[in-house]
TrEMBL record:
Coiled coil: none annotated. PANTHER family: S-ACYL FATTY ACID SYNTHASE THIOESTERASE, MEDIUM CHAIN, THIOESTERASE. Keywords: Hydrolase. Residues 28-250 form the Thioesterase TesA-like domain. Gene3D superfamilies: alpha/beta hydrolase (3.40.50.1820). This is Oleoyl-ACP hydrolase. It comes from Streptomyces caatingaensis.
Length: 251
């Protein structure tokens, strides 16, 4: 089944690997910098029947490799917001990993402000709160520097990093994503009205537990912090526990 809500643009942005049309809530998964919708394929398969998982596919990767890159969070948020409007006929929740958490926050803001749509929950994974500023310039480094950062976070398969032809194809998208994440500047405004759950690894070289805990200041609803063992991609080691935490909250 491939319900793309009737628009070509929507079918580009939204992927459903395990459609559950009768589910009571839709979980929108937003990938990290350099990531693709397929990163969330295992989570989509593992979710219980009550959760319909929609995975966001950014331009410039996989089947969208030939499309122009988007290198700012505001533009990405505008485009994802528009793509999700046809899916707001039932409750939505967001799961954003790393850069995807910042993007999720901005899309949630737009849904509340423009449509009065309040998420069932926002799951912010491995990302500091929007108000916690850091000076980062990975996107300005040469290709070798960008690869070193990817290796440091252990988020890319070593075999892929060793294939120069593949690297030449994917590095522009990775760089654009890093530019979007690193140039993002939080604009103070109303707190979200949805519950927020922060998730992180206890040995993440990029994000401290206190940075994730600061998400509590971005909601007027409840906040919960879940800390797992592992680094920036802790969720690949703890898929079952992460799925249970998300599904349990959405129940």
């Amino acid at each position: 089944m491939n319900d793309n809500r009737g628009t070509d643009d929507n079918s580009l942005w939204i992927r459903r690997f395990q459609p559950r049309p009768d589910a009571g809530v839709r979980l929108v998964c937003l990938p990290h910098a350099g990531g693709s919708a397929s990163f969330f394929f295992p989570m989509a398969k593992a979710m219980p029947d009550g959760v319909d998982v929609l995975c966001v596919q950014y331009p410039g990767r996989q089947d969208r490799r030939g499309e122009p890159l988007i290198d700012t969070i505001p533009e990405l948020a505008d485009r994802v917001y528009a793509a999700l409007l046809p899916w707001t006929d039932r409750p939505l929740a967001f799961f954003g990993h790393s850069m995807g958490a910042t993007l999720a926050f901005e899309v949630a803001r737009r849904l509340e402000r423009e449509k009065g749509v309040v998420l069932a929950a926002l799951f912010a994974s491995a990302r500091r709160a929007p108000s916690v500023a850091r000076s980062e310039n990975v996107h300005e480094q040469d290709d070798d520097g960008l690869v070193r950062e990817m290796q440091r976070l252990a988020g890319t398969d070593a075999q892929l990093l060793g294939d120069e032809e593949i690297l030449r194809m994917v590095l522009p998208a990775i760089r654009a994503d890093y530019r979007a994440a690193e140039t993002y500047r939080y604009e103070p405004g109303a707190a979200l009205r949805c519950p927020v759950v922060g998730l992180t690894g206890d040995a993440d070289p990029k994000v401290g537990v206190e940075d994730v805990a600061a998400w509590a200041g971005h909601t007027e609803a409840s906040f919960e912090l879940k800390v797992f063992t592992g680094g920036h991609f802790y969720l690949t080691q703890h898929q079952g526990a992460v799925v249970e935490a998300v599904a349990g909250r959405l129940r």
